[in-house]
Every structure is written in structure tokens, then in C-alpha cells.
Amino acid sequence: MHRHPLLQQLAAYHAGEPAERALSKRLANFVESHSDCFDRALMTGHITASAWLVNQAGTHVLLTHHRKLDKWLQLGGHVDGHPDVLAAALREAYEESGLPHIEPVSAAIFDIDIHLIPERKGEPAHYHYDVRFALRATGSEDYVVSAESHDLAWVEIAKLDQFTAEESMLRMAAKWRAAF
Question: For the purposes of burial, counting CB atoms within 10 Å of the CB of 78, is it exposed (0-12), middle (13-18) or buried (19 or more)?
């Protein structure tokens, strides 16, 4: 079953993040209930992959000022039908930053989130079931702003709250500071 690897990763995440058990159970239930959960055409929602992309020192995270949502967020996007969510997070990080050398800090899920994407241009409101991985830039940290962004910025993790009040973003910062 193409969903089995993600369900195993979610089970491990569920066991290791007791404060997020309701959220991880909801995400796992979505994956179990929809064989097409990786397909963007599933209009109730779909799996997305994100990157908590830190610099080599681990002190800054690369954020995008998202063109469509008009706010500062982690890099990420649609998995385009592919069940390897970590590979999708790596692809999205590269495509949105232009950084040629990025590697996973761990193959384990770093964070998850479920958020509503508002209706726009004939696309109904739907949920992104977002699976997030911690990644590290291992070479040059000179990024290239893609068409998906207004801007990119290396943001000091300790000062993330100056860029966003998004609960899930601040949660990732707290997790990073606690673990690394």
C-alpha cells in the first residue's frame, strides 16, 4: 500500500509527540480514509510537504513570504501524487530556494499541521494536511527567490515571532530550540 510508509511515520510521530496526538490521529485518519490523499485533485484536502530549512549553524530558518497567502511561512508545497513526503519536502525546498545542497536533519517527521486554504480563483477552500521535515543547508546559503514568493529571508529562530504569530511556526521554533 502506497500510504503505508507515511502511516508508519505518523505512528512514530504520534508516539513521540503526546501533546499533538489529536492532530496526528486526525492526519492519520485522513490518510487511511483516502487512497488518493497525495493527489492535489482531492478537493476536500491533500497531503503537502514542508521544510523547516535551517542554515549550517542551525541558528536561522529560511522563510518565504508566500505570494498567494501573503505571509511568512516555511518552504513547502504539494506532493503531486508522490507518497515519498520527505522527497517532496526536499524538492520543494530546492525549488523555492535555489539552494543546491540540502539534506535532512532526520528522516523522521519534525512537525505536522492541518490548515484551511481559502477559496481562490475557482478553487474551493480545502485542507492541507502538512507533513514537515527538518532540513539543513549544507553548502552556500545564497538563495534565489522563486515565482512562488514575494521574498525569502534567513530569520533568526529566536526572533521568529517578529515575522509570524502562526502557532505552528512558533511550535516548530520551540521544537528546534529544545532538540538542537
Answer: middle
Quote the distance between the C-alpha of residue 69 and its chain's center: 15
Q: Cα separation of 65 and 148, whole Å?
A: 9
Round to whole Å and give the CA distance between 27 and 10.
Answer: 8
Q: Which structural domains are found in the chain, ordered by start?
A: 4-179 (3.90.79.10)
Q: What are phi and psi of 147, to 5 degrees?
A: -65, -15
3-state secondary structure of 128: strand
> Phi first, then psi: what are they for 38, rounded to 5°?
-90, -5
> Is the pTM value of this prediction over 0.85?
yes
Euclidean distance between the first and the last CA atom of the chain, given in angstroms as a whole number: 34
Question: What is the mean pLDDT of the segment spanning 159-166?
Answer: 96
Question: Where does the chain show beta strands of DSSP type E?
Answer: 45-54, 60-66, 72-78, 102-104, 111-117, 126-137, 149-156
pLDDT > 70 in the chain, percent:
100
Question: What are the φ and ψ backbone dihedral angles of 13, each rounded to 5 degrees?
Answer: -65, -45
DSSP string, 152-177: EEEEEGGGGGGT---HHHHHHHHHHH
What span, in angstroms and rounded, lies between the C-alpha atoms of 123 and 119?
6
